[in-house]
Amino acid sequence: MANFNTHLNTAVIITGLGSATLLSAGHTDLNGALWLWFLGSIGGLLPDIDSDNSTSLDTIFNLFALSAVLLVLHYITTELIITISFIELIVVPLLVYGFMKYIVRPIFEWITVHRGSCHSLLFLLLLALLTTQVTWQLNEQTTTQAATFAWLTGGFILLGGLIHLLLDELYSVDLNNVTIKRSFGTALKIADFDNKLITLASVIAITGLIYVAPPTEQTLTALSDWSHFKLLS
Questions:
Q1: Which among 195, 196, 202 is positioned nearest to 112, based on CA atoms?
Q2: Which distant-in-sequence residues (6+ apart) come within 8 Å of 156 by Cβ?
Q3: pLDDT below 50 — which residues of the chain?
Q4: What is the CA radius of gyration of the chain?
Q5: pTM above 0.85, yes or no
Q6: For residues 126, 50, 93 and 91, what is the CA-based torsion angle, rounded to 10 degrees?
Q7: DSSP 168-213
Q8: How far is the C-alpha of 82 from the C-alpha of 32, rounded, in Å?
Q9: What is the tens place of the pLDDT at every residue in 133-189?
């Protein structure tokens, strides 16, 4: 399969071009384009989150931990409107980081198998819809722009993940000897049907996320307008 640098570099290039295209078409602003680029790049590593002790796993969980810290601090200061002292500002992030690293990560490593459920289209769709829903909840839900951006965030997670799976499948083919390696077909699959419980839980979760997802009609209308796109100034 492709290595860490190949996955990351390819995802960075392709999703970077995608976010730049959306920016040029006026579908997002600069900050939004940079965020989509970041999400697409991370999406290019996500399927390897089930690989114990891998560079991808370390990178992703560190980013998850950082995101969890920022979300908790944001919730405390904006939703609960609590003023945090200097000591609490140090202790809270350390507790959240420790929880992610020493509790969540070991559990995740225990229940996952490399090239199992995480190396599937079902898993990527679940993550994409979850990202869409989180973005939708954190932004103003009454505007078309918020719905559009929410779907774009999920779309870029999905795009990055698809790039990863496609690269793994391409690396499963030995073009020099025109042979197919034993790993062929284990990356780009619909779901891991050997683990029926996780597959069923994923389907239920996806169904629920689709039910509460942001509206799509106005989003599709907005994204279909490319009249402002300029290849050159």
A1: 195
A2: 15, 18, 19, 36, 37, 39, 40, 43
A3: 174-179
A4: 19
A5: no
A6: 130
A7: HHHTTEETTTTEE-TTTTSSS-S--TTSHHHHHHHHHHHHHHHHTP
A8: 28
A9: 988 987 777 777 889 999 999 999 999 999 999 988 887 654 344 445 555 555 678
